[in-house]
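Minutes, project huddle
Topic: does the predicted pose make sense with adenine bound?
PN asked that the exact inputs be recorded in the minutes so nobody has to dig through chat later. Recorded below.
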Amino acid sequence: MEVCRIHIVAFLVTLYLSCFCAAHGWGIDGHLITCRLAQTRLSKSAANAVSELLPAYADDDLASLCSWADRVKFRYHWSSPLHYIDTPDNLCTYQYNRDCKDEDGVQDRCVAGAINNYTNQLLTYGTTASQYNLTEALLFLSHFIGDIHQPLHVGFTSDRGGNTIDVHWYTRKSVLHHVWDDNIIETAEERFYDSNVDELINALDKNITTVWANQAKAWAACSNTACPDIYASEGIKAACEWAYKGVDEGSVLEGKFMHVLLIDAY
Ligand code: ADE
Ligand code: ZN
Ligand code: ZN
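Predicted holo structure (tokens), as shared on screen:
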């Protein structure tokens, strides 16, 4: 199961880093893309475990349920703070003990804590009478690995990861957080992939095995049970260097991010 987990995590991670893809966004497409790329890279034992844990209606397609965690936020109200990390404004650093808590200060209640928790739950797969709902653990973990790689899911506290910063994406009104969840991916998909998410997935898939092969190895490296702290540190750094950089309330944002993100995909 260790192997399963590493594969699941490593790949979902890899994917997101390279994922500047398309049709509905990190909201839906970002998760779809990362999970689709991940599932094809599972070891045999991990693939079997995932098949066994997915509900029959998913038809063996992990990607079809990778946005489930967003849909249950209202039913499972406790899960809302598990999608992100708020770090101190303008520090551009992340520390688990300082930052991984919810708004009431309850420790471990952030996306990094959730990744550790659901990874540990999944490690009980195959043991007698696991006390956990491992289907939900799989769906949460698959989703949170995507979220933690969206730079603004490890953002500043006062603007709630860019959720309170109104901007324009080209001529359209948007919110900075939404630009990075959805707009960049949507626009890239339309412009470069004929609005076809499968083409984007194919381009990423090809790059992962060719021009990004060395980087992909580094992305997959993890010597702990899970490595969310590495991703979160990279996330807030990327947020400061890219997502927040030069952006104010009312800024007009255009595709320069998209270009940087997509250039390798050719
Ligand atoms: N709510 C508060 N902070 C957030 C963040 N960084 N990302 C998403 N939702 C949030
Ligand atoms: Zn989420
Ligand atoms: Zn988001």
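Observations noted during the meeting:
- Strands lie at 85-87, 154-156, 166-169, 172-175, 252-253.
- The pocket of zinc ion (ligand 3) is lined by residues 150, 153, 177, 181 (CB under 6 Å).
No decisions taken; revisit at the next huddle.
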